[in-house]
Structure formats: C-alpha cells, structure tokens
Amino acid sequence: MILLILALIPLVGGLVLEFLVCQFTRKGSRLWKLLPPIGAALVTVLLVYYRLGLWESEDSPVTQLLFIPGLPALGFFVGLFAGWRLYRRLWRPRIIQDPGEGR
Predict the structure, then answer these.
(1) 11: alpha, beta or left? (left if phi > 0; alpha if psi -120 to 50)
(2) pTM here?
C-alpha cells in the first residue's frame, strides 16, 4: 500500500499529465510542454525546503526527506518521461516498406 501511494500514483499521474499535455499542444508552443517538469521540480524543491526545516528542528529523520519528497518526485518524473515516450511512440511518423519493393 505504501508503494502504491508513494510511487505508483505519482508515476501514473505524471504519465497521464505529460501525455495529455503533449496531445493537446501538438501544434502549440513548446513552452507549454515544459510546464509539467518545471512545476514538478518547483513543488519538489519546496517540499524539500519545508522538510529540511523540520529536520533541522530534530523532529524528522533524514529518511523522511528521502521518502516523502524523494520517492513521489522520482515516480512523477519517471511518469513524465514515460508519458513523453508513449506520446512519441504513438504519434511518430513510421516508414512502412512494401515487401515486394527493394532487395
């Protein structure tokens, strides 16, 4: 259950978000495609900053810095990459060779 909450939900969320952003901005600006990674990096940095404040007050061990912002952020970034790869695989132009042609 912990793995589901900390890794799989952010991974699927990142995959769906990146695929939808790529799908809806096909002819738009590339700037829109940078918003999910930049937003995820900002949220991760803010969470790490907040958790470091807790850790300095000795209420939170270092493992919580790894598990709370670290593992979900890693899952989300892997999901963003997987969504981009899925989009590229589905919409990349393919070259289909005729079997009777060539050789």
Answers:
(1) alpha
(2) 0.72
